[in-house]
Amino acid sequence: MAPFALLDTVPPLEAEKATAWEQHLLELESGRQSGIGAGAGPRPEYDPARHTLEERIAAKATELRALGWTVSARTVERMRTRYRDQGVWGLVDHRKTRLSSPTGRA
Q1: N or C terminus: which one in the chain shows less Cβ crowding within 10 Å?
Q2: How many Cβ atoms sit within 10 Å of the Cβ of residue 19?
Q3: CA-to-CA distance for 51 and 91, rounded, in angstroms?
């Protein structure tokens, strides 16, 4: 299935979270916020020419904590790896996508 079709199978809140993570990770990689014109340069704290990947990850973790997210630099790094390996589907909290069995674990 295409990634956008997979997001149709998860609760709407989880799909929104995965999309938000994707936007933040793309900014982390390129330095540019999504939705900003192509002529705009990267934000200073995410400029790949001026900062190492580790510095950009730490800056993103700080930014997300300021937004009220509970994340660490390790969480950002882990989500970046999952996105690289699985795309948007890797950003979904799969605890919310598990199907329950009518008989439980019996």
Answers
A1: C
A2: 15
A3: 25
Rounded Cα distance between 29 and 48, Å, is 8
Question: Which residue, chain included where needed, has tokens 């199978």?
Answer: 9
- Residues 18, 7: Cα–Cα separation, whole Å: 9
pTM, 2 dp? 0.79
Query: What's the CA gap between 99 and 102, in Å, rounded?
Result: 10
Burial 59-68, CB ≥16 within 10 A → b, else e = bbbebbeeee
